[in-house]
Q: What sequence folds into this?
């Protein structure tokens, strides 16, 4: 059994906690947080403590906090003999400077409190400098996921940038599309089959080959009409920027 102290109470920590509880091979011995209020969700099932109190002994200390807090949290674990890992996509392994045994346990997914996710299908990117540390991280990752990848800090950081494009930026496009629909009193639900098809296509095609739309086919008249229809200067700017980028990608200029 792998014993774990989970440090953090946000989205990632909550999802990891719920997932760890599903597996008998994992024992969450403690959850550590910054306030009693943030720990209230966990206190019903597991022992909890504040970050400046006594942290229990465990095989793995999972730091699931904001990126800028990782180093300061790791310092509080400098006297622990267990393996200290963080769950960030962008923070290098070297940020765990206070810990002799350290690694990365990065679940590449978007997390929202209240929305359940099957971790078996979530890629877990792992990294460690020492072989024994790596094998322990790998053991934990394979308990909860069928998709475990050995990824270096540099590779993980590139993946994180790519994830921002395919997830965060894409969702913002959904937000702008929803605003346009609300502005003109048409149902956003009409667009959902299109959104689903857009995602499903890249299961068989590369994103580049799946590209469609007026910019891809050099339909300047349609693009100009769209720009004129948009009321927001911000949306006009974004539309022009993305159209220019698509035109450039496919060998044309706006």
A:
């Amino acid at each position: 059994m792998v014993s774990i102290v989970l440090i953090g109470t946000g989205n990632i920590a909550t999802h990891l906690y719920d997932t760890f509880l599903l597996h008998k091979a994992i024992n969450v011995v403690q959850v550590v947080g910054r306030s009693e209020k943030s720990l209230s969700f966990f206190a019903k099932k597991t022992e909890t403590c504040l970050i400046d109190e006594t942290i229990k002994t465990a095989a793995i200390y999972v730091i699931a906090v904001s990126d800028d807090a990782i180093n300061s949290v790791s310092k509080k674990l400098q006297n622990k003999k267990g393996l200290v890992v963080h769950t960030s996509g962008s923070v290098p392994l070297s940020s765990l400077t206070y810990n002799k045994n350290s690694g990365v346990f990065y679940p590449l997914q978007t997390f929202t409190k209240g929305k359940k996710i099957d971790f078996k299908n979530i890629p877990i990117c792992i990294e460690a400098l020492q072989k024994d540390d790596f094998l322990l991280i790998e053991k934990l990752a394979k308990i909860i996921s069928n998709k475990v990848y050995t990824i270096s800090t540099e590779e993980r950081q590139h993946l994180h940038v790519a994830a921002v494009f395919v997830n965060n930026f894409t969702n913002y496009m959904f937000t702008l599309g929803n605003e346009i629909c609300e502005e003109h009193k048409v149902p956003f639900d009409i667009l959902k089959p299109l959104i689903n098809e857009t995602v499903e296509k890249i299961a068989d095609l590369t994103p580049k080959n799946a590209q469609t739309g007026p910019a891809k086919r050099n339909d300047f008249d349609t693009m100009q009409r769209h720009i004129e229809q948009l009321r927001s200067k911000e949306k006009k700017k974004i539309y022009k920027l993305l159209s220019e980028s698509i035109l450039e990608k496919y060998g044309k200029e706006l």
